[in-house]
Amino acid sequence: MDIQKLFEENDHVFKYIGATILEMKEGYAKLQIPYRIELCRRGNVLNGGIIMTSMDFAGGLATMTVNDGIDQVTQELKVNFLEPMYKGPFIVEGKVIRRGKTTVVVEITFKDADGRIGAIGLGTWYILRDKKVSIGK
User: Fold this and answer.
1) 51 touches 118 (CB < 8 A)
2) CB 68, CB 15: distance < 8 Å
3) 66 Cβ partners below 8 Å, 6+ apart?
4) How far apart are the C-alpha atoms of 49 and 69, rounded to whole Å?
5) CA-CA distance, 105 to 96, in Å (whole number)?
């Protein structure tokens, strides 16, 4: 299964921000987000909502690698914004730090092209076992 193609075809936000999946392995996901002016706020700084959205994707993808259910949803995502981000491409990494029976906790970092950390996050994903989240029409 080509996970990149699956997301591009079924998730309009993933496609809009131009996310590319660089790596996925057990407990880990790494994405690249391009610098594009339409993703920026005034001052040509990457919008915080775009940063948080890409961190949500990285955490969700990391969760997918350890999910023994059929789907997952973001239960909580906390982000600390540390530096303005304006030098792309950006790298977003999600690392599973705890896998429980019903939830997965992921630590996420967002870095610029120089490796400078712009944001750190901690998220919890709830594992769905009996009903897949439907893809809208």
Assistant:
1) yes
2) no
3) 26, 27, 96, 99, 104
4) 29
5) 6
Amino acid residing at 33 = I
Residue 32's alpha-carbon distances to 4, 55, 96, 101, in angstroms, are: 12, 11, 18, 30
Helix (H) or strand (E) holding 61: helix 48-64
For domain 3-128, the CATH architecture is Roll (3.10)
Residue 5, C-beta contacts closer than 8 angstroms, at least 6 positions apart? none
For residue 74, the surrounding DSSP H or E stretch is strand 71-81
**pTM of the entire structure?**
0.91
pLDDT tens digit at each of 137 positions of the chain: 588 788 888 888 999 999 999 999 999 999 999 999 999 999 999 999 999 999 999 999 999 999 987 889 999 999 999 999 999 999 999 999 999 999 999 999 999 999 999 999 999 999 998 766 565 54
